[in-house]
Design a protein that fits this description.
The complex is a heterodimer of chains A (690) and B (350).
Chain A: E1 25-26, E2 32-36, E3 46-47, E4 54-55, E5 60-63, E6 72-73, E7 78-87, E8 95-103, H1 122-131, H2 144-147, E9 158-162, H3 172-195, E10 199-205, H4 209-221, E11 227-231, H5 240-248, E12 263-267, H6 268-280, E13 286-292, E14 300-305, H7 310-316, E15 326-329, E16 336-338, E17 351-355, H8 374-378, H9 385-393, H10 397-402, H11 413-417, H12 424-487, H13 491-524, H14 529-559, H15 568-571, H16 575-594, H17 600-630, H18 635-658, H19 662-686
Parallel strand pairs in A: 1-14, 9-10, 9-12, 10-11, 13-17
Antiparallel strand pairs in A: 2-8, 3-5, 4-7, 5-6, 7-8, 13-14, 15-16, 15-17
Chain B: H1 17-27, H2 29-39, H3 42-65, H4 69-73, H5 77-88, H6 95-108, H7 123-134, H8 136-140, E1 142-143, H9 159-168, H10 171-177, E2 178-179, H11 182-187, H12 194-200, H13 202-227, H14 234-253, H15 261-266, H16 270-277, H17 288-308, H18 315-332
Antiparallel strand pairs in B: 1-2
Helix pairs in contact in B: 1-5, 1-13, 2-13, 3-5, 3-6, 5-6, 5-7, 6-7, 7-18, 13-16, 14-16, 14-17, 17-18
The chains are: A alpha/beta (690), B mainly alpha (350).
Chain lengths: 690, 350
């Protein structure tokens, strides 16, 4: 089989021999198992057990939520003691929801059986895979049922089984292949059944001769259409895109997934887990974990249950006390340094490196970039790490994005070769997170802007509607007022009509009552029917008379269309009412101006009305003054005199209340009486002009 | 337990920028040996002068900038600049030439821009160009290879003579030892054809062997650096290839008035430039394609300036001009990234 090549790559020291000396050991079931609900990509699983519930080994304890999610199962029988936030293996060091199971030591399996995947429906098989909690075990943890759920007309040209394991130190897949090669192939058969690929390849690095031999032996004994391709050892040949390029010479377009070009990749561990799930009914509850590093006495591989705390694994490998300086989950190139060993093994934990200080010393201080270009030579994604570094450092994120920052797979090859020890990958992670945060801010800002614009439009609409309604109401009121003015020439005429109306109504009711009483009396044969009858006659007469009067008066008033300008009250304008009107208008205007969303139209109308009212008031005032002048009185002077008299009265009263002397009080009292009489006199003079 | 929490990767290759620089110094040894063998003690004295003054100026600059002096001095970049300048200037040049050169190289061509990694021009070449233009007499009185001066065969003069030349500057001794370089001779032919010059001129007949040997020494050092992956083959191959090709075409058209390609490549500072000067990573292009364009430019410029320009050896100017063009070259020679159909071309979006 032809092997292509990919750009760049590095050859770090492999450090794999330490952990492949012995067979894979089974780790004893720990006392407490902590199972995080998020061990896969997508949404966290939802616990279906409650605290205190007894569970059996393999029982589902959390169900998948949404399309991209995986289920979780109890790795051993026991009791659920808690569902709480506990530290989880994540770069952030934060806690997440975990299901804690206290094992009862019985390790009792739930009822489980194999299914014949060839005889069931495709969807049913995928559902079964989902229920068995299978997720990608190469490191990403993508739910397998989603990955294998391609539509039936989606042609898969190549199925690639990733056996490369390119990172130093990790040997989990190597040991799995050495010991369970045939199981892996059975798992591959299941995948082939689902995807129906044209070609199937297993890509393995040439630093694993034992695994290659085991696979070849298994291939000879299994009826499967599969090609084993050995690729030269180079980091990161196990990366999805790099392995695809190695085996097929095809590049996955930026921003797309391999399925878009008809290629699907699965890890050997996932294939083996599929086999155990479908052909044995065992959900994913354990995996091989490499425990290595100079700080452990006996590095090796262990079958560990999901949820096993790291400390159990480290002590099983005989951790030297005080020697561990750095605990890395994963490999040295892309692994995450853990703060504590109290975190649990999850589906994607493939390796633990207990490193001493000399093995993984702290990186030397970063020196200036000498632009040597070694990072570019090493980058498997053919990027310009140098430029990305400059842009990330200078916070020019647009430029970094244009230089394909998001194509970086964060493999660490550039930082590995950098002679100035610049932490390049950290700069790229920083730049990526800044860009993502900016994008989120932008989305929020856009959303807020849309909402604001909608609100503005709504307020405008409402204001317009309000103005229209007010206009309509004003028109109606004006119409009604005009109508009322036209109705009668004099108030008496109006009041007459009202009185007549009431009289008619009263007469009608009285008549009805009387008629009912008469009927009652007639039916029951009571006395006084005659009197009742005469009363009814009389009432009937009154009623008809009243009706007549009303009818004639209404016809008379409607014919009286002349406006009653000659209202006697018009001779004397009601100054007080007009003044009140002015103050009312003023308050209304003030309120409208102080309002939050000023309606300028409303303010304008109010201002106009205020002016009208003020004008009416002034006119009325002038009319009064003129009226007074005609009678020979200076109204202004009279008003002033009245005011002064009032002041004199108040003053006198105050003096009386202040003084203690009786004699003084007497004099003051007489003064008060005279002041009061003067005031009364003036007021009577003013009264007609108020 | 207290565990260190660091971001990946957790291992790194052991080489540092100082180790890269040290390799460059190591690779210059054959050339320096050849210079000493053929031209006397002058080169070593110049190296001493340039090194001391260079390190002093660098320490001064670092102190002024408030940076840790020993850490930045320890990256050997000032030493490399000092050596490059020392082998470029005439071995009997007065001592103050070296000092002025290093002053310019360190302070004006490097530290002012931000120190190591930030200089847009090759510091040694900036110094050389400035010295050449400011002190043309001192910079063009080259030593003759000792195979010519003196009586018969080899005679390397005493150390004391070299010291007196450099520090005391006695002119009689100067005349005995200096003369025009072969490139000088081939340029200023006064109407004679090159074939005639080759036949008649003493320096050309006997002296070019020394220069050829010197170029061979630089070439060996350069190959060693490529083997050690200090830089890639792109820059040297494109410089030598372009120069060789263009001079071959010119020579093929008119052999009487052009220098043949072999001598273009082996006389003057071509080899030194191709392997040690143009490969300075800070001032050259970044991508491999960019380096090829960079090298082609240098090759063309070397030929042009040597044939039609005022100065016999054009390396310094060629390199400086291409340093100027390096950012633009970078814009137009970016590599195609994985998963993309085409490479970015041009500074748009930058």
């Amino acid at each position: 089989m032809k092997v292509f090549s990919f750009h760049g790559g590095i050859h770090p020291p492999e450090n794999k021999k330490q952990s492949t000396r012995a067979e894979v050991r089974h780790l004893a079931t720990p006392k407490t198992l902590v199972i995080p609900t998020q061990q896969h990509l997508g949404l966290a699983a939802d616990p279906v057990v409650s605290v205190g519930e007894k569970v059996l080994k393999g029982q589902m304890i959390a169900e998948p939520v949404g399309r991209i999610s995986a289920s979780l199962h109890a790795p051993t029988s026991g009791t659920v003691t808690a569902i709480e936030e506990l530290p989880v293996p994540h770069a952030s060091g934060l806690t997440a929801e975990c299901i804690v199971i206290e094992s009862d030591g019985l390790d009792q399996w739930i009822d489980h059986q194999a299914i014949d995947y060839k005889s069931i429906e495709r969807n049913e098989l995928l559902h079964r895979i989902r229920q068995m909690g299978i997720a990608g075990m190469g490191g990403a943890g993508f739910p397998t049922d989603v990955k294998l759920n391609l539509s039936s007309d989606h042609i898969v040209t190549t199925l690639i089984i990733n056996a490369a394991e390119c990172e130093p130190y990790i040997t989990a897949d190597d040991m799995l292949m050495r010991e369970h090669a045939s199981e892996i192939l059975e798992g591959v058969k299941i995948i082939q059944h689902l995807l129906k690929p044209i070609k199937t390849l297993i890509g393995i690095e040439d630093n694993k001769p034992n695994a290659i031999r085991a696979l070849n032996e298994a291939l000879a004994n299994t009826d499967i259409d599969l090609d084993l391709v050995v690729v030269p050892t180079k980091y990161p040949s196990g990366g999805e895109r790099q392995l695809i390029q190695l085996l097929t010479g095809v590049e996955v377009p930026s921003g797309k997934i391999p399925a878009d070009i008809g290629i699907v990749m699965q890890n050997v561990g996932t294939a083996q887990a599929l086999h155990r799930a479908i052909n044995h009914g065992e959900p994913l509850i354990q995996r091989i974990v490499t425990v290595t590093g100079e700080a452990v006495e006996h590095p090796g591989n262990f079958w560990a249950l999901i949820g096993t705390p790291f400390s159990d694994l480290l002590s099983a490998a005989d951790l030297k006390p005080g020697a561990m300086h750095r605990l890395v989950m994963g490999g040295p190139m892309m692994g995450v340094a853990a703060e504590t060993d109290a975190i649990p093994v999850i589906k994607t934990t493939n390796c633990l490196i207990a490193a001493t200080e000399s093995e993984m010393p702290e990186a030397p201080a970063a020196q200036p970039c000498i632009r040597c270009g070694m990072c570019e030579q090493a980058c498997p994604a053919q990027l310009l790490p140098q430029q990305l570094y400059w842009f990330a450092k200078g916070k020019e994120f647009e430029k970094a994005k244009n230089h394909n920052l998001f194509d970086c797979i964060e493999c660490g090859a550039c930082a590995y070769v950098c002679p100035s020890s610049i932490p390049l990958v950290q700069f790229y992670r920083f730049a990526k997170s800044e860009i993502r945060a900016e994008a989120l801010e932008q989305r929020k800002a856009d959303h807020a802007r849309e909402r604001f614009e909608a609100r503005q439009a709504r307020l405008e609409r409402e204001a317009i509607e309000k103005a229209e309604r007010r206009k309509a109401r004003a028109a109606e009121a004006a119409k009604a007022q005009a109508e009322r003015k036209n109705q009668s020439s004099s108030e008496s005429g109006n009041s007459d009509t009202a009185a007549l109306k009431t009289a008619a109504a009263v007469a009608r009711t009285k008549l009805k009552k009387a008629e009912v009483a008469l009927k009652n009396a007639q039916d029951k044969g009571l006395d006084g029917v005659d009197t009742l009858q005469s009363t009814v006659e009389k009432l009937k007469q009154t009623a008809t008379e009243a009706e007549q009067a009303l009818k004639s008066s209404t016809t008379a008033s409607t014919s009286n269309a002349a406006p009653s300008k000659s209202d006697p009250k018009a001779d004397k304008p009601d100054l007080k009412a007009l003044k009140q009107q002015v103050s009312i208008m003023r308050t209304k205007l003030k309120k409208a101006e102080a309002a939050e969303d000023k309606d300028l139209n409303e303010i304008k109308t109010l201002k106009a009305r205020l002016e009208e009212a003020t004008q009416a008031h002034t006119d009325a005032d002038h009319a009064l003054i003129e009226l007074a002048n005609n009678a020979g009185i200076d109204l202004k002077q009279l008003r002033i005199d009245v005011a002064m008299a009032k002041v004199a009265v108040t003053k006198a009263e105050r003096m009386i209340s202040k003084s203690d002397d009786e004699k003084e009080q007497e004099t003051l009292k007489t003064e008060l009486t005279s002041a009061k009489s003067k005031l009364a006199q003036l007021e009577t003079q003013l009264k007609p002009y108020e | 337990m207290s565990l260190i929490r660091m971001s990946s990767p957790h291992v790194t290759r052991s080489n540092t920028s100082s180790s890269v620089m040290r390799l460059v110094l190591l690779a210059m040894i054959p050339g320096i040996l050849a210079l000493t063998l053929f031209f006397g003690w002058g080169t070593l004295i110049q190296i001493a002068v340039c090194l001391i003054s260079g390190l002093a100026f660098e320490a001064l600059a670092l102190k002024l900038r408030g940076l840790p002096v020993s850490r930045y001095l320890g990256d050997y970049s000032a030493a490399v600049t000092a050596l490059l300048l020392a082998v470029s200037i005439p071995p009997s040049a007065p001592f103050w030439i070296g000092i002025v050169g290093m002053f310019v190289a360190i302070l004006f061509a490097k530290q002012v821009y931000g120190g190591i990694g930030n200089n847009p021009f090759n510091p040694a070449m900036v110094a050389y160009a400035l010295l050449l233009i400011s002190f043309p007499v001192q910079m063009t009185s080259w030593n003759l290879p000792y195979v010519l001066s003196g009586s018969d065969g080899w005679s390397i003069p005493a150390l004391s003579e070299s010291l007196s030349l450099i520090f005391a500057g006695s002119s009689q001794v100067m005349d005995a030892y200096t003369g025009a370089t072969p490139l000088d001779i081939l340029r200023n032919r006064d109407g004679f054809t090159t074939e005639e010059m080759w036949r008649s001129n003493q320096t050309l007949i006997e002296g070019t062997a020394a220069y050829h040997a010197l170029s061979a020494a630089w070439f060996m050092g350069g190959i060693y650096l490529i083997y050690k992956k200090v830089f890639t083959w792109h820059t040297p191959v494109s410089i030598l290839g372009t120069l060789g090709l263009v001079s071959a075409i010119a020579y093929g058209v008119d052999p009487s008035n052009f220098v043949d390609p072999f001598n273009h490549l082996t006389l003057g500072a071509t080899m030194l430039a191709a392997f040690f000067i143009a490969t300075d990573p800070v001032s050259s292009a970044t991508s491999n394609r960019g380096r090829i364009v960079f090298g082609i430019g240098i090759g063309l410029l070397i030929f042009t300036i040597r044939t039609w320009g005022n100065y016999p050896d054009a390396v310094a100017f060629a390199v400086l001009l291409m340093n100027l063009a390096a950012p633009m070259i970078d814009h137009y020679t970016q590599p195609r990234s994985y998963g993309h159909k085409r490479a970015r071309f041009g500074p748009k979006g930058e």
